[in-house]
User: Fold this.
Amino acid sequence: MSVFRISAFVMGALLLAACGDSEPLAPQSPTTRTKGVAPAAEPPFAGADWSRITSGEGVALRLEEEGDLIAAVACIRAPARLRVESDRFQPIMSEDRFTIGAGDEAYALAANLEAVRERGVEASGDIPADLLGRIEAGGEIAFNYGAQNLGPFPAVPETDRAAFVAECREIAG
Assistant:
């Protein structure tokens, strides 16, 4: 019992010693507070750009930054389907819902957890006509997978989104 009392006493003394000699902080003016603080960082993906790619397999909108894929939305032929992917998401074996948001609407797709990929997650489903209308209207686009979020990103440039939507509608039939 005496060992416990000595230990408790020593711990209490150490805590008091650690807290007791600190000097109160002087009030800071707004200019003092910002002195030496780094400027605000650029928002993530500030250099990201949309591009449209067309091939015999279908058409895709790719959001890339310095050549690295952030996310892509594609309309694939044979069979007609929408595929969405992101190299920035980490696969979660218990999560099968991948959502793309366009404007103020969200569209859920089934994640393909067995896809052979170096990194990231992909999902696919039917091509929603309403989603194509929202992309065509020029709303922001965002992506969600589990607790992971990307965006919202600025609208796709008008010429690319018009061509993408027209080809997707042709693919969807």
